[in-house]
Amino acid sequence: MNILVTGGAGYLGSVLLPKLLRRNHKIRVLDIGYFGLGHIKFLLPQLDFIREDIRRIYKDSRFRKDIVQDCDCIIHLAAISNDPSCELSPKLTQEVNIKATEALAEIAKRKNIKFLFSSSCSVYGKVDGLAKESSPLNPLTLYAVSKVKCEELLNSLSNDNWRPVILRNGTLFGYSSRMRFDLVANIFSLYSTLYNEIKVFGKGEEWRPFLHVSDCAKAFIYFAEKKELKYNCYNIAYKNMQIKELADIFKELKPSINIIHTKDINIDKRDYRVSIERMNEEGFLPQIDIKTGAEEMMEAIISGLIPDPESIYYRNAKWLKELTHLGKKDYKEILDLMENIKRIHSI
Ligand SMILES: NC(=O)c1ccc[n+]([C@@H]2O[C@H](COP(=O)([O-])OP(=O)(O)OC[C@H]3O[C@@H](n4cnc5c(N)ncnc54)[C@H](O)[C@@H]3O)[C@@H](O)[C@H]2O)c1
Questions:
Q1: Tell me, what's the pLDDT at 333?
Q2: What is the C-alpha radius of gyration for the chain, rounded to an integer number of angstroms?
Q3: What are 116's strand-pairing partners?
Q4: Which of 94, 161, 292, 310 is most enclosed, with most CB atoms within 10 A?
């Protein structure tokens, strides 16, 4: 298939691209490159990479047509992709997460292109029991609200001829060449490796559905390649787990670590676990457990595979804030500098 991947240079996209290429798909990527492109430099010659702001899709009709030219499928990942980053600029969040999604979906519908949207289980916010896809949504943050709005507009565009697919992904974990250390299992990997210590807010009783980044990438491929789908929305997760259980896994992997329960200053009130019945019924089964993902990340840090792992570069909100502060400069100049630093590290 000819597939357009938006946000393909991100944490998830960087794992997805080689998998798509392995399956002989022809790939076009649209990404602004907020987190640089050095980590996918070996993939670039095999791709049609367009470094551009996705907002151009609703600003420029010529660009809108060109970007979907000859496409059979769109995997739409580009977004301001977590709670604190969205809070930095509600306007940017509205434009990138919602307005651009709307424009992209409209042209996909007009050209009858299959459309997969990367939503999040955080749309459930706080729930008792297992959240099913049909359960009421309770988005608690601007980020989750933006995902709910996109789902609503996709559902409103959906008809018998064009049915977009919504994957509500769990909290991702695991190694990617574009690492993120602002996701809970990844943060635990970083701190248990570097400081022998992890911090849990309060009792750590909040639930999260977890999913390895590689399984998430496989889910997109599975749903892109599958011809007939029963539903238009799926929760995608490996396992629901409380944060304190997650901490125990790290203790098992490295018995010397201290688990510190801090005062519950966590303003994050999200607490959700999800049903994966639909996903299983459709035939998709994630494979990688948290222990395996945690080991892989801890060893990647120890091996120096992730240069300067404490850099704000790996934390979306901090990095985006820095880009904004330095906004008077051309951000591409800063990113090129980052890429050079990474290259020097890898020599
Ligand atoms: N990481 C998770 O735990 C998780 C869980 C559920 C859903 N998701 C969703 O999956 C998708 C990918 O997540 P991720 O973790 O890879 O995020 P990420 O932040 O690592 O990647 C997002 C990519 O989008 C690009 N992007 C941002 N704004 C853009 C713009 N204006 N124009 C073009 N490109 C732009 C960035 O440069 C980046 O490469 C997002 O939609 C996210 O909301 C992620």
A1: 57
A2: 19
A3: 75, 165
A4: 94
Strand partners, 236: 169
**Alpha-helical runs (H) found in the chain:** 13-22, 56-59, 61-67, 83-88, 90-93, 100-110, 142-157, 184-195, 213-225, 243-253, 277-282, 290-302, 316-325, 331-346
**Domains with residue ranges and CATH for the chain:** 2-346 (3.40.50.720)
Residue 62, class by beta-carbon neighbours within 10 Å (0-12 exposed, 13-18 middle, 19+ buried)?
Answer: exposed
Residue of the CA atom closest to atom 27 of ligand 1: 79
Cβ count near 277 (within 10 Å): 13
pLDDT of 176-192, one tens digit each? Answer: 999 999 999 999 999 99
The number of the ligand 1 atom at minimal distance from the alpha carbon of 33 is 37
Cα 185 to ligand 1 centroid, rounded to whole Å: 18
Task: Using the mean position of ligand 1's atoms as its centre, give its distance from the Cα of residue 265 in Å.
Answer: 27
Closest CA to 241 of 284, 207, 281, 190: 207
The protein residue with its alpha carbon nearest to ligand 1, atom 41, reads 77
Task: Give distance in angstroms: CA of 27 to centre of ligand 1.
Answer: 17
Start-to-end CA span in the chain (Å): 36
Distance CA 222, CA 216 (A): 10
What would the pLDDT profile of 155-173 be if each residue is shown by its tens digit? 999 999 999 999 999 999 9
Closest C-alpha residue for ligand 1 atom 7: 120
Centroid of ligand 1 to alpha carbon of 75 (angstroms): 12
Ligand 1 pocket test, pick from 4, 12, 89 with the greatest ligand atom count within 8 Å of Cβ, gives 12
Which residue shows structure tokens 């240079």? 9
Copy the structure tokens of residue 21. 């290429």
Enumerate residues lining ligand 1, CB below 6 A. Answer: 7, 9-13, 31-35, 53-55, 77-81, 96, 118, 120, 169, 171-172, 180, 183, 316
Residues of the chain above pLDDT 90, percent: 85
